[in-house]
Write a structure and sequence with these properties.
The protein is α+β, with helices and mostly antiparallel strands. The protein has 13 helices and 13 strands. The strands form three sheets. Strands 1, 2, 3, 4, 5 and 6 form a six-stranded antiparallel β-sheet that branches. Strands 8-10-11-13-12 form a five-stranded mixed β-sheet, with helices on one face. A two-stranded antiparallel sheet has the order 7-9. Strand 12 and strand 13 form a beta hairpin. It starts with a helix and ends with a strand.
Length: 457
């Protein structure tokens, strides 16, 4: 009775209610490591914790971490009016723990005899449900953040490396171009000769054709240029560099018609260095564009510059950004991802970041489900007053006996560490906020998730 009077949650209850609790409960002692309630089992007792520490820990792919705990002054276990849900993992005593243990069979009588205590338990049950939901959402956001980071790192690696490499070569090329310019100036070319040189330089960036040259065709082109250089008494050291540019033999003939001897040697060296500098500059520009595009996609995906409030959302942009983020994962499995979104697809009134979270979970699951070389189709169209997006994969399908459980929290068919069991549950909850539906149809070789969103007015 004295410990109940000092209990943080129940201390303010009437003395007669404390007496009822003491008469209908027993003092339980749980040593370190004791499993108070096992995963998958429904809680059988109500616990009024006097001392110690009870914890639920989970590994959702990033190591075990605490998702819920009870200390002295808390209440746990089964509560009055609860549905008797089972914990997502074992409830374990991490410190020597003492608690008043009350069997669930007397909870109906407790509700009649102890109204103040019952109200406290109900409030605790609501807070617990809210905390579990918050923990699930936080974990799913962290998992999605990891996917974003991995996808972004993969997309940025190659263009970033290309930028560094080209910038280094550009520094060296500028030094060589300056030396070539000094050599050309020493040749004292006339205005007409400089004009011929400029005309040849203008062909540097000209494309070689719509199809890249094969190694054999490129070698033939280099040999042809080397022969031309030899015929004009010029060293063939420039043949390899010129072969990679758009310079043509007629352009070289026009240059040679006005410039010859040492002056031609200087003009060709200057031409090669100018072509190299322009090519490197173009490579840096291309790589920078390839860096900007995924960064812009992540910015659009996360709505990082927008308040989390409902607004008319462009479904097309959200799906496009999501596919950009997941592009590296799809390419790693050689998966063909097709997109067919109607041109007149209306906007949906939603929180953009939350809706993109739905696309991320569904498309990521589809990519995981299909085999190497598989196919995922994303389509969208207007149906009456709804925007309907379908995500279809040609994976093995969802077994009939588990189709009713796929939206359950923590339920997953993926190996340990590969799936949290939260993605579909979170997607369903987010869509419920938007008055949307997510029906599923699955047979071997075809699984379809539909997202039916009310169109923005």
């Amino acid at each position: 009775m004295a410990r109940l009077a000092q209990h943080r949650a129940l201390g303010s209850a009437p003395v007669d209610e404390h007496a009822w609790l003491a008469a209908h409960g027993v003092l339980g002692a749980f040593p370190v490591g004791a499993v108070v309630t096992a995963k998958g089992e429904k809680a059988k007792n109500l616990l009024v914790v006097f001392a110690g520490h009870l914890v639920i820990r989970m590994d959702r792919g990033a190591g075990s971490h605490k998702i819920f705990e009870w200390r002295a002054g808390d209440v746990g276990g089964v509560m009055p009016y609860s549905r008797g849900a089972s914990p997502p993992n074992d409830v374990v005593a991490e410190e020597p723990t003492e608690a008043l243990v009350i069997e669930k069979e007397v909870l109906a009588e407790l509700s009649r005899e102890c109204p103040v205590v019952t109200a406290t338990f109900v409030h605790a049950m609501v807070d617990r449900a809210r905390q579990f939901t918050s923990s699930d959402l936080r974990d799913e956001k962290l998992i999605s953040l990891g996917k974003l980071a991995a996808g972004l790192a993969h997309e940025l690696n190659n263009p970033a490396s290309a930028t560094v490499r080209s910038a280094k070569l550009l520094t060296e090329g500028l030094s060589s171009a300056e030396a070539a310019a000094r050599q050309l100036a020493a040749a004292h070319l006339s205005a007409a000769q400089f004009a011929s040189n400029d005309a040849a330089r203008a062909t540097c960036g000209a494309p070689l054709g719509s199809v890249a040259l094969s190694s054999v065709a490129r070698a033939d082109r280099e040999d042809t240029i080397a022969d031309w250089l030899a015929d004009h008494g010029v060293s063939d050291e420039s043949a390899s560099a010129l072969a990679d540019t758009g310079v043509t033999l007629p352009a070289l003939d026009a240059l040679a018609a006005n410039v010859s001897g040492q002056a031609l040697e200087a003009a060709l060296r200057w031409l090669v260095e100018c072509c190299l500098v322009r090519a490197l500059s173009s490579e840096i520009q291309t790589a920078a564009t390839r860096i900007y595009e995924p960064v812009d996609a992540v910015k659009g995906f996360s709505y990082m510059d927008r308040a989390p409030t409902p607004e008319p959302v462009d479904i097309r942009r959200g799906i496009s950004d999501t596919l950009t983020v997941l592009g590296a994962k799809a390419r790693a499995k050689s998966i063909d991802v097709s997109v067919g979104l109607a041109d007149d697809l209306p906007r949906a009134r939603a929180v953009g970041a939350e809706l993109n979270q739905v696309w991320m979970n569904l498309i990521d699951n589809a990519i995981d489900a299909v085999a190497v070389g598989g196919h995922v189709a994303v389509t969208g169209a207007r149906e009456l007053d709804c925007v309907v997006v379908r995500i279809v994969d040609d994976g093995p399908g969802i077994a009939p006996e588990i189709q009713g459980r796929i939206f359950d929290p923590l339920f997953t068919t993926k190996p340990v560490g590969k799936g949290s069991g939260l993605g579909l549950d979170i997607a369903r909850r987010l869509l419920q906020r938007h008055d949307a539906e997510i029906p599923v149809e699955s047979v071997p070789g075809r699984t379809e998730f539909q997202v039916r969103l009310p169109a923005a007015k």
